């Protein structure tokens, strides 16, 4: 039988330990698939290997995590002795390429060859740290790091690579640098070889020459002897994988040898032997007196299978890890030899090529014993994750650390490089690096605190922007910016340096004060509600959804959740939630088919009578929205909200609804989210402001109608529901971004709140739009003006402030000639949802509630929408939704109890999964799952139903220190809510 080259590894199939196969870490389903494949296609004598122990453990542990669990931010700290550091390397920062007797390195030769490096950049001067190391020491002191990882320049110490060429000025330089670090209580972490090989040694074939083993050992011996009284942490090589594969296989880095078939394996063989010899030299000659650590800094990305249920993809990811990380870690940390996966793969291909022996060299038993165990700690450089494509995925770091723990016997680990590059045209404002550090260090914290990985230190790459190899000075990894065009190479801390300093000072991420929970209750009579909208649960949107490509998956609201025919079922859901109110909207075209009072559809009115009566019978009070975006198509055909006749049409429509339902409905919302009606639903240009103008006047007329005609006998309240995100400045130290955040709020919440509560648009909005309109060649402002009479009629048309809120954005100034001049991004540490625009940012909720209080005279506030979406396969255990409501409601409680915000009620969005506008049924906000593939459209409760019902039953958050409260016993098992942290570990 032909030997099949399938991607599964291992010499034999050994059943994992345990009483039953189904209890194995590998998982019974996947294990069975692999076993059957092997039994069917592979002879027993074939060289077969199952995925490694590390891979089995990690993929079994993490592959079934939800996106919420994967990205959940972990607050906590590292041990007090955790080693915080920052790094650099000699060729990248020192400069002084021929100063004081230094010999040329192969990188000097390479960069002096035209066309090799972007823009012709070289390391001749670089950061000039050879002459400015005192400035580097100052930066290190300011950061408060405990360690500085640097590399020694071999040709600066031995200009021709041999001890006989010793350059004392080079020795003096490193003595001054090391002494300076020690004086400031900064531990030097010294890399002996970070790629800058003396050119004379490259001239004898460099690392492809076995003589390099002894030559390197002599160099290491000198360094141990000379600096080892102060240096207690040594790394022999930095990223041997890059030396062997990128330098001798791909040929992209010096010495630019393109011989992928054999040279990398010979080079790696020599590197491993050279490392082992240097380790033994230290062990035998210096360890007793110097008591330092010796290791090697290996590099690896995390490789994630596209689908952990497909054996070939699991095997391919494992193979990639073994070829990159295992190539060097396996011999040193495992058994003195290369991984079986690597031996099998290279050996198999060598055999197919007709070679007499494998291209991968072999170690003798003596060599294996000599190499195995030659590292006191595990030093790791890691930057990203690979799946289908290279991408920054912080969670891969946690998985990689777990893989090392399981694969290599839980060694002590130091992350010796981790960072991200940005374009050097971006100087000190580097949000991408800030997000990177926050997310990656947090994943390291998870590995330490949640997974018991023995992580001892973290070293950020790098201290300062420097020569970035083939990219020259076009990108920078630094926490400090350097102006490479200035002869003095001035250093300026970036925002990321301040962040890293804060992380070090706090020793991780202690729970922010603003995230700490508060215990207490909302006021008596608090309105607890849940919301829907007519078109989304029942049926301008009919025409829109019936147009191809408008809605995801061609979904429409033709049936939606069929709430038109399922009133009793919907009321039963409301009773399970224990809400005392229900917010729904009336369908304008259901009552007035052509939008006017020429024809009143009594059947439509009867439907709402039945709904309201059913609610009242269940002691649930209706909150009715008159307009939730489903404009009669007949009115849209004549211009919709751009036609000012719609003001009267809306008033007439409101009159019909008030007169028919007002004796039973005491809470009215005129218009839902006018910002979205105007800004998203209108044509660009002037149209949004005309629409917004008409919406405000239409609301005012409906309010006055109720106030003048119905309030005395019906006794209800009327308001408008305004939506807004909270805006934080992207750079809180930059006035332009602070101003941009304010503009964002003025243009979103203030567009409609300012006229309703203050009588007119804000001066900021009026001035901004006028200036930009005139600058764009328009004769007048795009923003219409209210007459004095209109200002008087609009001001005060509110009985409360209706408010929809979901998320927070980071605002930055844009100099483009658009109206707002605001750019928006999200912090990557924020939890995602099923909606790209919705990130979980609870503190912003409290801040914007305070904004409303301070800006609009402390009105009574009813939160009329707040919630979170999900996508993908349905999981009724919706812990992300529970977390969202728990966090946001707690912030609302803080606003009420601590800040004195007059919050009267809270409405969750939404009762059930429904048509989410352009997203169709893909985005699910509901407490109840609606199975749209079942004609009966069954409503199935998610776990969040019980949580929200418990919250309502308790009217807030009972203090857990007082013991379990009777309000929390909704379920037979007693206490309902499991601590959220335990759900995400």
From TrEMBL:
Protein family membership: Belongs to the glycosyl hydrolase 1 family.
Domain of life of the organism encoding this protein: Eukaryota
Keywords: Glycoprotein, Glycosidase, Hydrolase
The EC number(s) this enzyme carries: 3.2.1.21
Keyword Glycoprotein: yes
Gene3D superfamilies: Glycosidases (3.20.20.80)
Active-site residues (renumbered): 417, 865
Subunit structure and binding partners: Homodimer.
GO terms of molecular function: hydrolase activity, hydrolyzing O-glycosyl compounds
GO terms of biological process kind: carbohydrate metabolic process
UniProt-listed PANTHER family: GLYCOSYL HYDROLASE, LP05116P
Protein name (Swiss-Prot/TrEMBL): beta-glucosidase
């Amino acid at each position: 039988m032909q030997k099949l080259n399938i991607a599964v590894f291992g010499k034999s199939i050994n059943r994992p330990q345990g009483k039953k196969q189904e209890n194995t870490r590998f998982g019974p389903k996947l294990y069975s698939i692999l076993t059957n494949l092997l039994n069917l296609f592979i002879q027993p004598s074939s060289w077969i290997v199952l995925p490694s122990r590390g891979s089995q453990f990690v993929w079994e542990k993490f592959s079934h995590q939800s996106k919420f669990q994967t990205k959940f931010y972990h607050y906590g700290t590292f041990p007090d002795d955790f080693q915080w550091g920052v790094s650099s390397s000699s060729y990248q920062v020192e400069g002084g390429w021929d100063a004081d007797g230094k010999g040329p390195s192969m990188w000097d030769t390479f960069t002096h060859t035209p066309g090799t490096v972007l823009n012709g950049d070289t390391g001749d001067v670089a950061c000039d740290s050879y002459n400015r190391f005192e400035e580097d020491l100052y930066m290190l002191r300011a950061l408060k790091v405990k360690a500085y990882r640097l590399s020694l320049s071999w040709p600066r110490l031995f200009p021709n690579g041999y001890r006989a060429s010793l350059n004392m000025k080079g020795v003096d330089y490193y003595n001054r640098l090391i002494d300076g670090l020690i004086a400031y209580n900064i531990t030097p972490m010294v890399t002996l070889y970070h790629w800058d090989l003396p050119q004379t040694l490259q001239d004898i074939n460099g690392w492809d020459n076995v003589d390099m083993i002894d030559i390197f050992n002599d160099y290491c011996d000198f360094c141990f002897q000379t600096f080892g009284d102060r240096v207690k942490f040594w790394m022999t090589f930095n990223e041997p994988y890059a030396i062997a594969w990128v330098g001798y296989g791909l040929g992209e880095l010096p010495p630019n040898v393109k011989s992928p078939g054999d040279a990398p394996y010979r080079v790696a063989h020599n590197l491993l032997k050279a490392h082992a010899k240097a380790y033994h030299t230290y062990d035998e000659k210096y360890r007793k007196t110097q008591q330092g650590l010796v290791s090697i800094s290996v590099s690896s990305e995390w490789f994630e299978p596209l689908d952990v249920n497909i054996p070939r993809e699991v095997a391919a990811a494992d193979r990639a890890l073994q070829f990159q990380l295992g190539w060097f870690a396996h011999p040193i940390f495992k058994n003195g030899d290369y991984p079986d996966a690597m031996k099998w793969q290279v050996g198999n291909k060598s055999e197919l090529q007709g070679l007499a022996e494998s291209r991968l060299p072999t170690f003798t038993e003596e060599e294996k014993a000599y190499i195995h165990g030659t590292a006191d700690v595990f030093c790791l450089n890691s930057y990203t994750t690979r799946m289908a494509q290279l991408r920054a995925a912080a969670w891969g770091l946690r998985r990689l650390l777990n893989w090392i723990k399981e694969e290599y016997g839980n060694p002590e680990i130091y992350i010796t490089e981790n960072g991200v590059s940005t374009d050097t045209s971006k100087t000190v404002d580097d949000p991408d690096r800030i997000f990177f550090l926050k997310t990656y260090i947090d994943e390291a914290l998870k590995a330490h605190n949640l997974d018991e990985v023995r992580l001892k230190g973290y070293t950020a790459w790098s201290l300062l922007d420097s020569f970035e190899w083939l990219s020259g000075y076009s990108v920078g990894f630094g926490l400090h910016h350097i102006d490479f065009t200035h002869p003095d190479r001035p250093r300026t801390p970036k925002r990321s340096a301040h962040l890293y300093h804060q992380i070090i000072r706090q020793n991780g991420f202690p729970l922010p004060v603003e995230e700490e929970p508060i215990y207490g209750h909302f006021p008596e009579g608090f309105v607890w509600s849940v919301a829907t909208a007519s078109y989304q649960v029942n049926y301008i949107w009919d025409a829109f959804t019936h147009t191809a490509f408008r809605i995801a998956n061609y979904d429409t609201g033709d049936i939606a959740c069929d709430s038109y025919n399922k009133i009793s079922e919907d009321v039963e859901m409301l009773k399970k939630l224990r809400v005392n109110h229900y917010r729904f909207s009336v369908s304008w075209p259901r009552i007035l088919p052509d939008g006017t009072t020429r024809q009143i559809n009594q059947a439509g009115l009867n439907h709402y009578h039945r709904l309201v009566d059913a609610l009242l019978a269940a002691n649930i009070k209706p909150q009715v929205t008159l307009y939730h975006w489903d404009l009669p198509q007949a009115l849209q055909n004549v211009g919709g909200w751009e036609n000012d006749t719609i003001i009267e049409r809306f008033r007439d429509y409101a009159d019909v609804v008030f007169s028919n339902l007002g004796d039973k409905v005491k809470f009215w919302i005129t218009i839902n989210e006018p910002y979205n009606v105007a800004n998203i639903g209108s044509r660009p240009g002037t149209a949004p402001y005309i629409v917004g103008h008409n919406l405000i006047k239409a609301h005012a007329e409906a309010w006055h109608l109720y106030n003048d005609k119905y309030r005395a006998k019906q006794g209800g309240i009327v308001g408008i529901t305004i939506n807004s995100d909270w805006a934080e400045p992207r750079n809180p130290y930059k006035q332009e971004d602070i101003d941009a955040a304010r503009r964002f709020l003025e243009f979103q919440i203030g567009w409609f709140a300012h006229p309703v509560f203050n009588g007119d648009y804000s001066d900021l909005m009026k001035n901004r739009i006028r200036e930009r309109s005139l600058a764009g060649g328009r004769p007048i402002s795009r923003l219409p003006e209210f007459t004095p009479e209109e200002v008087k009629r609009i001001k005060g048309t509110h009985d409360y402030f209706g408010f929809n809120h979901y998320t927070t954005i980071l605002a930055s100034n844009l100099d483009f000639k658009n109206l707002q001049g605001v750019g928006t991004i999200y912090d990557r540490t924020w939890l995602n949802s099923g909606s790209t625009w919705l990130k979980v940012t609870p503190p912003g909720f409290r801040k914007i509630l305070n904004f409303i209080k301070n800006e609009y005279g402390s009105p009574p506030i009813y939160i009329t929408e707040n919630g979170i979406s999900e996508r993908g396969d349905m999981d009724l255990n919706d812990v992300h939704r529970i977390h969202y409501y728990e966090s946001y409601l707690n912030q609302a409680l803080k606003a009420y109890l601590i800040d004195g915000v007059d919050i009267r009620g809270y409405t969750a969005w939404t009762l059930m999964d429904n048509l989410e506008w352009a997203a169709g049924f893909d985005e699910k906000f509901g407490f109840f799952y609606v199975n749209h593939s079942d004609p009966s459209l069954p409503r199935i409760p998610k776990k969040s139903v019980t949580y929200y019902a418990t919250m309502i039953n308790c009217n807030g958050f009972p203090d857990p220190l007082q013991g379990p409260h009777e309000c929390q016993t909704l379920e037979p098992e007693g206490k309902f809510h499991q601590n959220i942290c335990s759900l995400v570990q």
